[in-house]
Amino acid sequence: MDFNNTAVSTLLQETFKASNDFSTRHTVKEHWAVRYYYLTSLCDSIKLNESIEKPLLSSQSAEDFIDTLLTLGAVKQPDVSKLPELIITGHVVIQLMENVFSLDAKKSLNTQSQEVKIEHVLMGPQKALSEDLLTNINIIRSRYQKHELHLEQYVLGRSSKTETALLFDVHLAKPHILDRVRSKLLSIDVDIVHSTGQLEILMNNRRISLFPTMITTERPDRIVLNLSQGKVVLLLQGSPFALVLPAVFFDFMSAMDDLNQAYWISTGLIVIRYIALAIALTLPALYISLISFNPEVTRIQLTMSIAGSRAAVPYPSYFEVLFMLFLIEALVEASLRLPKFIGSTATTVGGLILGQAAQQAGLVSSIMIIITSAVAISNFVIPINTMSAAMRIVKYPLILLAILFGFIGTVAGMFFLIGYLANMRSFDEPYLKLFLGERRTSRPNKSR
Amino acid sequence: MIRYLYYMIIMCMLINIMLNVPTFLIERRYDGAVMGILAAVVSGSLCAVVFIKALRQFPNQGLPEIFRSYLPPAIRVPLLLYLGIMWLIAGLIVLITFSRILQRFLDPDIDILILRIFLILICSFLAAGSSRSILYTAEIVILLHVPFVALLLVKALGHEYMDWEAVKAVGQFVRKTPDLEIISVASYIFTGYINMAVFNRFFRKEDKIRGLWLIPLAGFAVLFTTFFIPIGYHGTEGVASFIYVWVSTADSIRMEFGFVERVIYMFLLIYLSISLLFITMTWHVGAELLKDVFSKKQWAQEDDQRFNWTRWLICLLFSPTCIVTLRFLNEKNYLELTDEWLIVRYISEVALVLIVFWLGRKASK
Q: Residues in chain A whose beta carbon is closer than 8 A to a beta carbon of chain B?
């Protein structure tokens, strides 16, 4: 038996000379021979068995086998130079007489959707996205059953060749936002794209940024809700998070539980969330202003008790604040990195023992301990992690302004923050604006 | 969009305290201030209604664009220069007065120059932002603070120290005829609409203007409280002995069960935000008018960028020159100058309203 084009064989053998997982199979039947190449690490042996080996054994002639292959989704490849690329992406290259076919036999890992890890809700769907793109699209399509849901595919990253899906409701999404997203996706030129967070930075086109302008979420119900509000969703192969855009400030302050509860309960919870945001941002700055600039602002009893608790502290208020805030930030960071089993030890040692001891040693006032924990707790109330991280950082400029100008600095800093956020845009949508008039897609309308 | 018009008007109604309006009126309380207030309500709301209605002829256009299409350059350029500088001065007066109040009542140790530089940096940076963003900021700041101001006023009106006899005594001078100065100072309350000169760019033809009748009512309520509450607290004679009469009035009110017992601190911090908003907005309008003098091209909707260097430079260069001139003025001169400015402002405002009214008639033909 001789093959007319041995070029294919030599090319592939040469390219994958150093890869031990490269495999070549050769089968000869009565009048014809089949040779196929694949990477054992990428391809699913069950799929290979089902779509090549079994048909091969049952086929009577070469034409018969080709028909079966084409039915199973094989594609004829006239261009030999593209073959290494196909093998890398998990295809099998099948050589049969003069013809070369390729067939997708990729083994998918992590196709199970995971438990929700970050955005917990009390009563609501408990499953998050998986790490497999097709599974994720499946999850979204089965929750959003409209033929208007369009899907566009992109490949990002020169080396990682990450498959990316752009999903949107074609009737609701704004065309100019779609155009900008498309052009930004096409302009991305890096080696490796792994995570949605990285993609967000790449699409921002800004080297220095603080506030997120796209939501990173792992919840399918949030994705679907946003799709129905006319937003655009980006999914990455290998990432259990989706990127939703454009996103405005209020999106980051909403939890999915808001939809599951009665109006007054969810409104109450939203109000609590904004109070918590205000506390997390301003409390340390207000403490400094109160102690070091205007102790007469609060009523006398309160001022006396604060001053009393600070009696043993030997340095100005801002040392105290910076010291305790550093410790709590370090504690948060440490408990994130530590294995789960040691994490609780760190919080106990850090939070309980250290706080108690620092207060008894007279290094910080007991009021400061309360403030530190209030700030830390309030900060975690913000539902979307990226926004909560941004707010963790924002309180430090406010502290600096409070050190310099007291209450004036704090209030002026808050004013600047509001002005700055109002000046931001997420894909031409105003970032901070009251009364957006968003489509209410999951609550009864007033008229009904 | 139309609600933003009302935020501008509310902002100017609240800011009158920083522009010496109550002090000036109280000084003239026996010489026609009461009648002046009533006259100002009429004149101010009339100006507001005429100006807003006239601008309806020019949807999505600001004053610079209107002038460009109807006036020759020889008139347009000096007019815009004059208006722009008047706007910048308005912000600056509030900045200077309020930083002085802050130093006196909140932080006596602070270096006032550094405080002013700090506030100038914040306001000029925000004033350089896009016009829409300033409207969004205005909405948030006004809605956050108006409930507190309302609480403060209710508290003040219902307090036992409020002496209604003194109010009645001053009210009896209602028959005195006011002069131009009183009317021009009192009508400042209504000036908020004038910022439409630039912000009209974002008001479309379809936007219906409703609730204009609220302007005289709200204006009258604000003027009444701003004038009579200090009189009720300090008495007909005692009230004249304060320079910043409202700060002292706020200091007379106590919240028995409040977290912050002395109302003055609440008052100062509320007014800090409102003043910053006022400075940002007036500087933005002023810089936008001045910018148009120097640019050859007409403004278009997509020019509303997030940060504009020209606007920023105009604000940054303008404010220090004025702060330097302050070295040669003491506080008394300065307060007199503020009153002069208020009068000049009134005359120019009426003139501007008439010009726009005339242009509107011309455009509708």
A: 293-294, 296-300, 302, 404-409, 411-412, 414-416, 418-420, 422-425, 430, 432-434
Report the chain A residue with the minimal C-alpha distance to residue B260: A298
CB-nearest to B269 from A293, A411, A422 is: A411
Residue A116 belongs to a domain: no
Nearest CA in chain A to B308: A423
**Residue A35: DSSP 8-state:** E
**CA–CA dist B124, A413 (Å, integer):** 14
Same domain, A221 and A269: no
> Cα distance from A404 to chain B (closest Cα, Å)?
9
User: Are both A154 and A32 inside the same structural domain?
Assistant: no
CATH number at B105 reads 1.20.1740.10
Residue A326, C-beta contacts closer than 8 angstroms, at least 6 positions apart: none
Omega within 30 of 0 (cis) for the link into A220: no
Query: Among A215, A247, A279, which residue terminates a domain?
Result: A247
Counting the structural domains of chain B, the total is: 1
Distance from CA of B147 to the nearest CA of A (A): 16
Residues of chain A positioned with their CB less than 8 A from the CB of B140:
418, 422, 432, 434
Q: Are residues A298 and A330 in the same domain?
A: yes
- Give chain A's domain count: 3
Q: Is A153 found in the same domain as A243?
A: yes
pTM confidence score:
0.89
- Geometric angle at alpha carbon B158, from B156 and B162, rounded to 5°: 65
Same domain, A414 and A292: yes
Query: Using the beta-carbon criterion (under 8 Å), do B276 and A415 form an inter-chain contact?
Result: yes
Q: Which residues of B touch A405 (CB under 8 A)?
A: 107, 110, 115, 118
The mean pLDDT values, 10 residues at a time, for chain A of 448 residues are: 61 82 83 84 84 82 84 82 82 83 79 82 86 89 89 88 90 90 89 87 81 90 90 90 89 86 90 94 94 90 91 90 90 83 78 83 89 91 90 94 94 95 87 76 56
Distance (Å) from the alpha carbon of B50 to chain A's nearest alpha carbon: 29
Instruction: Tell me how close the Cα of B117 comes to any Cα of chain A, in angstroms.
Output: 12
Please tell me which of the candidates A293, A302, A416 has its beta carbon nearest to residue B126. A416
Contact B262 A293 (CB under 8 A): no
Say yes or no: A139 and A199 in one domain.
yes
Domain co-membership, A243 together with A280: no
Query: Looking at this predicted complex, what is its ipTM?
Result: 0.94
Give the residue numbers spanning the domain of A181: 133-247
Residue A314 inside a domain? The answer is: yes
DSSP-assigned states of every residue in B98-128: HHHHHHHHT-TTS-HHHHHHHHHHHHHHHHT
Closest residue on chain B to A299 (Cα): B261
DSSP alpha helices (H): ranges in A289-384? 300-309, 317-337, 340-347, 355-360, 366-381
**The last residue of a domain, from among A247, A272, A287:** A247
Given an 8 Å threshold on Cβ–Cβ distance, is A415 in contact with B265? no
Considering the domain boundaries, does residue A124 fall inside one?
A: no
Is residue A334 in some structural domain?
yes
Task: Name, in order, each residue with C-beta under 8 angstroms of B69's C-beta and a sequence gap of 6 or more.
Answer: none
Among residues B183, B29, B188, the alpha carbon closest in space to that of B93 is found at B188
Owner of token pair 């079966």: A68
